[in-house]
Amino acid sequence: MHLHVVDHPLAAMALTVLRDERTPRDRFRPALHDLATMLVYEATRALPVMPVTVTTPLATTAGTRLAAEPVVAPVLRAGLGMLPAALALLPTAHTAFIGLARDETTHQPTAYLESVPDDLAGHPVFLLDPMLATGGSALHCLRLLLDRGARGITVVAVVAAPEGLVALESGLPADAAAELTVVAAAVDERLNDTAYIVPGLGDAGDRIFGLM
Ligand code: URA
């Protein structure tokens, strides 16, 4: 597994806004959008490209376009908060939706939506989930994406827990684990006894969408 922790002052500032318990939803969402933009920018650094020619008002010169259409897969709910930033940077991307509910007793994910293309072979895939906590949700999604032919998947997270990173490394077939990339703004200390990341930022879905 390749772990890339984005080390940038603007990312650190946005993460601080997200962590702050006083940040209201109307400031949380734009900060998440800004941070997701930076994370996706880093996550797409090695995207395969192909050369094209482009004609400027003055001359013809070399240009670039993506070699394959990417797929972005937000994990519902919280991954939706990162989707607009990902699609702004990757306007030709396909979107695959994976809906997971977390059982608050077992902390295991249950899928209620899997809207994923049948054949992902040859497409760079980016799994969007702000919180990589136990790794249970990410593992469920990664297995689904691997079953559909995805290779070299990138998980884009805001905060990762060490336990989640270990779970991904040990829970995937060795070749898939070796090809996996995780891009995050921070690796935090630990999970607490209810599987929340500490210090983390709380429940990302609730902070994005509210909880009445
Ligand atoms: N999901 C969240 O939203 N926050 C955590 O800390 C862990 C899982």
TrEMBL record:
Gene3D superfamilies per UniProt: 3.40.50.2020
EC number: 2.4.2.9
Biological processes per GO annotation: UMP salvage; uracil salvage
One annotated GO molecular function: GTP binding
UniProt pathway: Pyrimidine metabolism; UMP biosynthesis via salvage pathway; UMP from uracil: step 1/1
Domain Phosphoribosyltransferase per the UniProt entry, residue ranges: 5-210
Record-linked InterPro entries: PRTase-like, PRTase_dom, UPRT, UPRTase/APRTase
Cofactor(s) required, per the database record: Mg(2+)
Keyword Glycosyltransferase (UniProt): yes
Keywords noted in UniProt: Allosteric enzyme, Glycosyltransferase, GTP-binding, Nucleotide-binding, Transferase
PANTHER family given in the database record: ADENINE PHOSPHORIBOSYLTRANSFERASE, URACIL PHOSPHORIBOSYLTRANSFERASE, CHLOROPLASTIC
Family the entry assigns: Belongs to the UPRTase family.
Name of the protein this chain belongs to: Uracil phosphoribosyltransferase
